[in-house]
């Protein structure tokens, strides 16, 4: 008898609990934002900003540039977030609102000795990467 009662309680909890925790997608719960997240292969800081190298495919790399001006104040186009100590890998998250670029978050390793940090030689002109200062185009 105990098994029958426990079974009925479990069945009732399963039936009523699943409907209780089901997420309803409605206009009030939806968002105009979506994001693209990529793992970073290398971060090259320069006097104009950061050049981010990421993996597009098995043997291809992509690059995007984030100008320093985007990091100026809270609520601007870019946010630099230092990852906590541990096995976290740096990444780049680009947010879009209604299909248009909104902002970007750059999650970096706290130590500049990490394998993802690189150096740009002083005589290299990186201005070609910073031509479009309004958008970021992630390619796959």
Summary of the model, kept short:
The chain has 140 residues and is α+β, with helices and mostly antiparallel strands. The protein is 14% helix and 34% strand.
Describe the structure.
The protein has 140 residues and is an alpha+beta fold. It is 14% helix and 34% strand. The protein contains one helix and six strands; from the N terminus they run H-E-E-E-E-E-E. The chain has a six-stranded mixed beta sheet with strand order 3-2-1-5-6-4, with no helix packed on it. It is elongated and about 85 Å long.
What is the topological layout?
Elements: H1 2-21, E1 33-45, E2 49-55, E3 61-67, E4 78-82, E5 91-97, E6 100-108
Summarize this structure as a short list of keywords or feature phrases:
140 residues, alpha+beta, six-stranded mixed beta sheet, 1 helix, 6 strands
